[in-house]
Amino acid sequence: MTSPREDKIKRIGRYYLFYGANEYMLKQKLSSLIKTVIPPGGEAFDLDRFNGKRCEMADLLNSVCTPPAVSPLRVAILENVEKLPARALGMLCHALPKIPEYSVLAMTAEKADRRLKLFKMLLSGDKVAYEFNEFSHSEAANLATKFAADRGKRIDPHLVEALVGIYGTEPYRLENEIEKLALLSGEKGEIEKKDLAFASGYSRVETAYDLPELAFDGKIKEALELCGRAITSGISEIQILYILKNHLERLNSACNLRDFQELIATYRIPYKAAARIFAQSRKVKPAAILSCLSYIFRAEYALKSARFPARSVIELLVVAIYRAASGNKGRE
Is residue 332 part of a domain? Predict the structure, then answer.
């Protein structure tokens, strides 16, 4: 009787293509393949890595044709396969069907160009090519929760939303921030909002994630003060734009939904956050939200053109959002 690991190894093909913009998932997939096939300590014997930017095809083919020393399969990894010269791509396309049964070649690429014969063949194969796009907001939130759990910490869903809102969906940045927060929280079992505030350099518990609600609730003085603390603490102006834009998009969706439960299902955000956004959507007309979104696009253009001081652009944007929201009330 074979073990589950042996059964899994038997199902491994001779070659794979992992492609897409999600570098984190590409590396995770390669790591999973290596751990499945090669026992601890066997990498030095049965794992070879190549890069399409500087790969010699003779070395790659020699690797996949060499039997493994201590593992069930030899693993050859070819990153950036799309960077291979045209002649090398042709050689590889011809060699793939001839890879021996004791080897597996795992290739990665940022993009898979179907105009090239190699990618056309790989993408038409059965369970050979796997695409990994960038994480969605909810996927990044789940990943941040996992990072905290890996460090023995609980983290409030609303705080996870704040982290993704501030730092975006890039997993390595999120893991780095979770690592810092886990250290700051000390022996506590939970990472709290005040830990994030302290890590961001704020004197109070608010974070940049609270900025949209302050502006829409008419608390313009508090919003501008928070905006200044956010920039001083090192949060970039583009990150603040992301936070505001993300909030407005959810607010716009809430205007067309019947209740905030649909908002939770659509964006997978915490109950309390969804309830607040839904209640806010009943106080502001959709026209005001669209005006605010247009202000954000203008602010983004102004920041990228570098024609105006970045802090002034953000402060004017916050004031514009406040005036649009307070002067265009919806259902009360």
Answer: no
Say whether 126 sits in a helix, a strand or coil. Answer: coil
Q: How far is the C-alpha of 216 from the C-alpha of 282, rounded, in Å?
A: 12
Cβ-based neighbour number of residue 4 at 10 Å: 7
Evaluate whether residue 271 is within a structural domain. Answer: yes
- List the beta bridge partners of residue 18: 108, 130
The model's pLDDT over 99-155, given as tens digits with 9 standing for 90+, comes to 999 999 999 999 988 889 999 999 988 889 999 998 888 888 899 999 999 999 999
120, 147: one domain:
no
Q: What does the alpha-carbon distance between residue 228 and residue 318 come to, in Å, rounded to a whole number?
A: 11
User: What domain range is 117 assigned to?
Assistant: 4-131
Which ranges of 136-170 would DSSP assign to H, the alpha helix?
137-150, 157-167
Edge-first strand listing for the sheet containing 74-79: 47-51, 74-79, 103-109, 15-19, 129-131
Residue showing tokens 């019947």: 258
- Is the residue at 255 inside a domain? yes
Q: What is the DSSP letter of 115?
A: T
Boundary-marking domain end, from 84, 100, 131: 131
C-alpha span between 180 and 184 (Å, rounded): 6
Between CA 66 and CA 282 the distance in angstroms is: 67
Residue 306: CATH number of its domain? 1.20.272.10
Cα angle: 252, vertex 255, 257; to 5 degrees: 115
Taking alpha carbons only, the member of 291, 253, 244 closest to residue 274 is 253
The pTM assigned to this predicted structure is: 0.64
